[in-house]
Write a structure and sequence with these properties.
The chain is an alpha+beta fold and about 500 residues long. Strands 1-2-4-5-3 form a 5-stranded antiparallel β-sheet, sandwiched between helices. A 5-stranded antiparallel β-sheet has the order 6-7-9-10-8, with helices on both faces. Strands 11-12 form a two-stranded antiparallel sheet. Helix content is about 45%, strand content about 10%.
Length: about 500
């Protein structure tokens, strides 16, 4: 685990001198002013001892039954055996008890809910896992609901999240590597990956970037994402985020590295490509015909969300000859009653639509969805009746909004809305030429984007070995590869026929 850089007054070494060690801990934890820092003094095997823990973070029942009672009933110290070894092996019945002499290692464990035991004549402190703070129970994922598939989501407890992943992937190849991020206030992280499946160079790069996060405190997994991503000024997300354990397992099976963090109800996976944002959690759970149909619908939604408003602006302002005469007449008649230009009306309606979505997301409970629907109906009808906006503009904005809702990734949805506004501006300035140049610039930037050094458009551009599971999804028994993200020596995940019971094809 990465050593934490504390202030000088919070660093030091816990020695055999009980009074000195207790004084160091008392000063570092501000026990004289912080009322929730408890220092319980007692005697064990004839030695002075002190147990330091945070009230509410540590479980009182665990402290009583697994530390204090065994300490009062401790067997005599065998001759020639170190005191810390005797306490760990014969006295404390907890499964996770560690020893450390560095104060900078003991303090984060205390403030994370563990208890530290210091004993006279024993160097360092024994740290026992007695965490018992309140936490949220397992619930259904809020933002990634599925029709078929598990309905369990991650919580804010790092330990619970790791357990959820291990329960779905019970293999010794799953490695859980503990780290911390943050110099003054460390936050616990966990890197999860499949040994031999994840690329070693990618794993080393992830470690290097996390250890290079020179900040005092990382409050969320989204903040960590911004600190380790390749291109911080890109509008596109460069990590795949999910709140579903089953999707995290699918990332691991592809050779990706999953990063879980304390107090984060979701995880991120690196490296990733654009296809990870396009796929939905239950695509693989559905039959391949259904999954392909839904993906094509999703693709249509993305195209409509990205291009429909800008195409409408370019056609009506610069290229009216490309529209049917009846539609052009309807547009001109409705626009003649509107005081605003078509270009400014489109921009304003897109911004109003985004404002309604943001307001609906911030209002708690079921009121948010009701507010979005009611606001859209009332404002849209009132704007048309007052001749402030053309009805066609409201229809175009509504269809493009439906297309953005079909995108599974919230981050990709936000990036689509930003690109949508930029393309509308380009089309309003230069028509088809501005739209084509904007699309070319967008594709050029996406083609040069990477995630932990992995090409963003892979396996399409550049072409890499991959399953037939990119834009469309072919049958599961045709998907034999993990993809170029994984270790090339273990890229194949199935040998021989997957439907071994079906001999019809072999006979033919």
């Amino acid at each position: 685990m990465k050593e934490t850089s504390w202030d000088p007054q919070m660093s030091g070494v816990l020695t055999e001198d009980f009074a000195k060690s207790l004084r160091l801990i008392r000063q570092a934890t501000h026990a004289d002013t912080s009322e929730d820092v408890h220092i319980h003094r007692f005697r064990i095997l004839g030695h002075h001892a002190a147990l330091i823990f945070i009230d509410g973070m540590a479980n009182d029942t665990k402290i009583q039954h697994f530390i204090l009672l065994p300490a009062f009933q401790a067997p005599p110290l065998p001759e020639g055996m170190a005191l810390e070894d005797h306490l760990m092996e014969h006295v404390l019945p907890l499964g996770s008890v560690t020893h450390s002499a560095q104060l900078s290692s003991v303090l984060p464990r205390i403030f994370a809910g563990d208890a530290a035991l210091i004993v006279d004549t024993m160097p360092g402190a024994l740290i026992a896992d007695v965490r018992g703070y309140a936490k949220r129970a397992l619930n259904q994922p809020i933002n990634e609901s599925v029709v078929m598939g598990p309905h369990e989501g991650f919580t804010e407890s790092l330990r619970d999240n790791v357990v959820l992943i291990r329960r779905l992937m019970n293999t010794p190849a799953l490695i859980s590597e503990q780290m911390t991020v943050g110099q003054k206030t460390p936050t616990r992280l966990c890197l999860l990956y499949l040994d031999g499946i994840a690329r070693q160079e990618t794993l080393d790069e992830v470690r290097r970037r996390i250890q290079g996060c020179n900040v005092d405190y990382v409050s969320s997994i989204g903040m960590l994402e911004q600190l380790i991503e390749d291109k911080p000024f890109s509008l596109l997300p460069q990590v795949a985020a999910t709140e579903r354990p089953d999707r995290a397992v699918s990332f691991l099976n592809e050779g990706q590295i999953v990063i879980a963090m304390e107090n984060a109800p979701n995880i991120i996976a690196v490296p990733m490509g654009l296809m990870h944002l396009y796929h939905a959690p239950d695509d693989s759970a559905l039959r391949w015909q259904y999954g392909t149909f839904l993906r094509l619908l999703r693709l249509v939604g993305i195209v409509l969300a990205l291009l429909l408003p800008s195409l409408f602006v370019a056609l009506t302002i610069y290229h009216p000859e490309g529209m049917p005469l009846s539609l052009l007449t309807s547009v001109l008649e409705s626009q003649a009653r509107v005081p605003l230009s078509l270009f400014s009306s489109m921009l304003l309606m897109l911004l109003v639509f985004s404002l309604i979505n943001e307001a609906g997301a911030r209002i708690p409970g079921a009121m948010g969805g009701s507010l979005s629907i009611v606001s859209g109906l009332i404002l849209g009808q009132a704007a048309v009746d007052a001749d402030l906006f053309s009805p066609l503009i409201i229809i175009v904005v509504a269809i493009s909004g439906l297309g953005s809702y079909a995108v599974p990734s919230f981050s990709l949805t936000l990036s689509l809305r930003l690109f949508q506004l930029l393309l509308v501006i380009a089309a309003g300035v230069a028509g088809y030429l501005g739209l084509v140049l904007g699309l070319f610039f967008l594709l050029m930037r996406m083609a040069g984007l990477t995630s932990m050094g992995h090409p963003y458009f892979a396996p399409i551009a550049p072409q890499r070995p991959a399953n037939p599971d990119s834009v469309i999804r072919l049958p599961i028994w045709r998907q034999r590869l993990r993809g170029a993200i994984s270790n090339p020596f273990h890229i194949t995940r199935s040998f021989g026929p997957m439907r071994a019971w079906d001999q019809s094809k072999e006979k033919k």
